[in-house]
Amino acid sequence: MNPKKVQKFVLSYIEATGCHVIEKSPSHVTVKLSPEADRALTGRPFYWSFIDNTGTVPETMTYSWMFGKSPPPAAGVPSTVLSSLMTTDGGRVMREEVYFGSRRLTQLFDAVRQAGRCVTLFEEPPRGVRDPLGSAPYTAWLGVNFKAGFACDMKREELYGWGISLATGVIDERFFDRLKDTRLTPKLPANVHLLKNGLSLRKAMTQLENALERKLKAADFSWAVEAENRRQEERNRINLYYGPQLDRALEDPEQTAALQTRLKQREEEIDWQYRPRVEVSVVNCGIFHLPGIH
Q1: Alpha-carbon span 87 to 198, nearest angstrom
Q2: Which residues have a Cβ under 8 Å from the Cβ of 145 and sit 6 or more positions away?
Q3: Is residue 122 classed exposed, middle or buried when 0-12, 13-18 and 19+ CB atoms within 10 A define those classes?
Q4: 262: how many CB neighbours lie within 10 A of its CB?
Q5: Complete edge-to-edge strand list for the sheet that includes strand 62-66
Q6: Of 115, 41, 58, whose CA–CA distance to 49 is shortest?
Q7: Environment class of residue 17 by beta-carbon count within 10 Å: exposed (0-12), middle (13-18) or buried (19+)?
Q8: CA distance 220 to 205
Q9: What is the per-residue pLDDT across 123-181, written as a single tens digit (0 to 9) for each?
């Protein structure tokens, strides 16, 4: 990411979290964080615990984020990526350089990823087509991005973007492909009514998980057989190495115990490296309200 892309991403985050922009230029932005952004970025859990328990109005922090090269520091001022400036009204502004690979940008990525793990969105109806007095039915879908990892001494990952209708239980295995060209909004559009759900979120998630499990079980597992064969070969190899040593050390209990410990450790390492396994996790999910009855 070049500085312009970094700046665009940071400004999008500022706007999405409701932060107050104090000053902006092509190479920097000075912003007073919103409570949401302050909680995510400043690492002040005790402060926010105090605010939550007492109901006190929070005082969020102010940052000046530099996207290009900073000007050289004044004489006697140390050159650091983080410095504290005092404003004319006595407030404190934390100044940082934000670039691809910086700690702050990585933290922003993590905050966006965490906040975007679960969303609720509505498809925007086409403009100028609807009857202003009518009301269109919308069906709720649970959309989940699953990541399946096929691991042994090698690893392969696959993504499954599936959705299930909360009204009928129909599963769409290309659900997120269907959403790629769809305009979505977090606000309920006008002249829209939501259909009643026939499935709870827990039941819908269970059905998606069961369907994905059936699909994965039907996959080609020749890679797992080959990995298991390599695991057995490695175990046989270390047994051939340690076996004679254990035979020679039968009369020395300490040496025998040490060899057995090393052998067990090597067997555990080989099992961890070669044993085939399938690991499934949820990347993110959301409730998507789409037009029609599905």
Answers
A1: 57
A2: 159, 160, 161, 176, 282, 283, 284, 285
A3: buried
A4: 13
A5: 20-25, 28-32, 62-66, 92-97, 82-86
A6: 58
A7: buried
A8: 25
A9: 998 776 566 677 889 999 999 999 999 999 999 999 999 999 999 999 999 999 989 88
Helix pair angle (103-115, 3-16), 10° resolution: 40
Alpha-carbon distance of 65 to 44, in angstroms, equals 19
**pTM score above 0.90:** no
- Tokens at residue 260, please? 């057995």
Cα gap 214→51, rounded to integer Å: 48
Backbone φ/ψ region at 78: left (φ over 0), alpha (ψ -120 to 50), beta: beta
* Whole-number Å distance between alpha carbons of 86 and 78: 16
Q: Which amino acid is at 128?
A: G
Q: % helix / strand / coil in the chain, to the nearest 5? A: 40, 30, 35
Question: Would strands 20-25 and 82-86 be described as parallel, antiparallel, or unpaired?
Answer: unpaired
Residues whose CB is less than 8 angstroms from the CB of residue 85 and which lie 6 or more positions away in sequence, other chains included: 64, 92, 93, 94, 95
The one-letter amino acid code at 37 reads A
pLDDT in tens, 234-257: 999 999 999 898 888 888 888 889
Distance CA(28)–CA(7), nearest Å, equals 8
